[in-house]
Amino acid sequence: MKAVHTTKRALSLVERQKAPVRGTGQVKVRVQHASVNPTDLDIVNGGFDLYFRLYGAKSPERTGLEFSGLVVEGSARFPDGAHVFGYTHLIKGPKTHQQVISVPEGWVAAIPEGMSFAEAAAFPLAAQTSLVALRDVARLRPGQTVLIIGGSGGLGVFAIQIARNFGASVTGLAGPAGQRVMTALGAERVFDYRETPLSDIAGPFDAALDLSARYRFRDVRHLLAPRGVFVPADPVKNARSIAANPIRAQKTGKLYVDRGNSALLTELARQAATGALETGHVREFPLEEYRAAFETLKTPGRIGRTVLRMQ
Ligand SMILES: NC(=O)c1ccc[n+]([C@@H]2O[C@H](COP(=O)([O-])OP(=O)(O)OC[C@H]3O[C@@H](n4cnc5c(N)ncnc54)[C@H](OP(=O)(O)O)[C@@H]3O)[C@@H](O)[C@H]2O)c1
Prior knowledge:
Blueprint: E1 3-7, E2 10-14, E3 26-36, H1 38-44, H2 49-54, E4 66-73, E5 83-87, E6 100-104, E7 108-110, H3 117-121, H4 124-137, E8 145-149, H5 156-165, E9 169-174, H6 179-185, E10 189-192, E11 205-210, H7 217-220, E12 224-232, H8 239-243, E13 251-252, H9 262-273, E14 282-286, H10 290-296, E15 305-309
Parallel strand pairs: 8-9, 8-11, 9-10, 11-12, 12-13, 14-15
Antiparallel strand pairs: 1-2, 3-4, 3-6, 3-15, 4-5, 5-7
Helix pairs in contact: 4-5
This protein binds NADP nicotinamide-adenine-dinucleotide phosphate.
Residues 37-39, 125, 129, 149-156, 173-175, 177-178, 193, 211-214, 233-235, 255-257, 300-302 line the site of NADP nicotinamide-adenine-dinucleotide phosphate.
């Protein structure tokens, strides 16, 4: 099988790798598509080296956290031939930029009718993280207001829809290319960060979700309602303000979603099947063009997600 390999901050495509053996409680999947995420870029650039060492793990030589594919060695729940998608663990999971993986079935769900393999590979991490951020960390309720910073990116296109489905009023912030899509997905107000800095946006917001990973609590504090919550995508960069939560009314939420949750993914898949979540913002590259796919992560104006066609 082929796999994307990373060593010394560089990427290559390796061939004739041995396919993994299926472990207990796992399903073996022939990967059809796999997304490329900012986290993959961090893996390549060594951004997680310390984190992996803290957990006694070696820095990975593979990238990829999400996948869609066909079960080739299944279980009672996911038999051979089932179409599945999932999100593997950053440290403990197999990486998905390889043509065959073996993954715990608790991180996997069935692809709903009508969703393509490309859309399914682009779905689990982004949709599940957005759901957890808004429902569990921000505790968003109907009628509340939310600012989604980075509303046009991989997570943002789902976060806007999920917030809107909660009955919240959504304001989106992204670059010029993202304005139209944020409106189409349900944002009531949209801003271009190049023209309207955070300081010029009128609040108050019950929650501010920062998917650009560029801001800190002090940057959004003036926008938050008296008991508003700031939810940064990068909890490590915001560890200090998370620690300061007990002494102030406005909070910084701790968002950390490190693997797929089969029950949550099944629920999100159900919403996609009913049309409540649109999944079409996907740009696809053949595996051989993995370098170009990774390059999209460094380029502003990308709408939604990038996926590799693995076979
Ligand atoms: N904590 C967790 O559990 C968890 C889990 C998964 C992912 N994440 C993190 O979530 C983040 C989002 O991932 P993603 O795939 O959605 O990234 P992405 O596709 O690169 O999206 C980034 C978004 O931020 C916007 N942006 C860039 N600079 C900005 C600025 N100065 N002000 C406002 N918006 C700006 C971009 O707009 P333009 O393209 O127009 O510039 C784009 O809409 C990543 O940092 C990822 O590591 C966290």
